[in-house]
Amino acid sequence: MMAVADTSFLIDWARFSLRDLLFRVFDTVWIPEDVLNEVQSERTLTWIADRLASGHMSLFPLLPEYRDRALRLVELSRRGPARGLDFPEAYCIAVAEDRGYVALSENGAAYAAQFLYTTARVWRAYEVLWELRRRGLVPDDVIHVYQEETRHKFPQRDVERWRSYGSSQSASKRQGS
Amino acid sequence: MAEIFAEREREARELRRREADWRYIDSLPPRLRAALIFYIETGDLYVAAKIAGLKADEFNELRIKARIPHVN
Amino acid sequence: MEKLRELAEREQEARELRRREADWRYIDSLPPRIKAAVKLFIETGDLRLSQRISGLGLEDFVEHLRRANVWIT
Question: Which residues of C touch A157 (CB under 8 A)?
């Protein structure tokens, strides 16, 4: 599975102590060139540069066909009902839509877009952590660790969903044994 | 054949690491430093220039200042 | 329809969270442009628009949000 990441995802995820587990879920994470240009902090830049060097990340160029589709997505989003998309997130979604990647974004408009006007899957850090937990690669409390380390707070309904999944998994295991 | 390429890559990387002016590299702002380190590790000028936010020839000038050899 | 309602509720909850937990003392100490941008973000959750108004790069703006205890959700 491959992903294309926007800045809002990367600048948070780069602060997470288990950030390289991202590459247990995605074989390659594509970074649009405009996204790379937006990154400023040493921590995030160094991580991206290291992962580009190791081949876990790759640069994705600005291509006219995706730029046009991104503009179209921005237009569609401006007609409501959810918050409007901006070009950088729309570009990631356009790429993901066409190439079957997962778009990684913390942007609320991007998250909403997948339910309204695109077939692309849009994952936040929450969905990545969910997948990591499903694969048994992280403990249940990772969601709190992530929040603490990145200063990114998950919505309460998502925290509750996380807890109830954890409880149901424990109950299934008890029944099985 | 793949082994020969891998060996050449490894030698090139070691040469770039050895010859680089690390004092100069460490004095640079994060973006340029990250780009030069990336270049030392990979020899990929195109992507290194993108990381640096420079054109390829501008990055090449920086590479020369940092005494990193271009290894063929 | 169900999904639309859920999205709207998420937006509302996120806005309330941002308002409730913001460090207003820090926000009031900011230069006018950045203060306005942070307040806009608190009300709308529109990261890109707020960032543009701040005149800062995205990472720098997000850093101010973090320091202001304004969560990006």
Answer: 9-10, 13
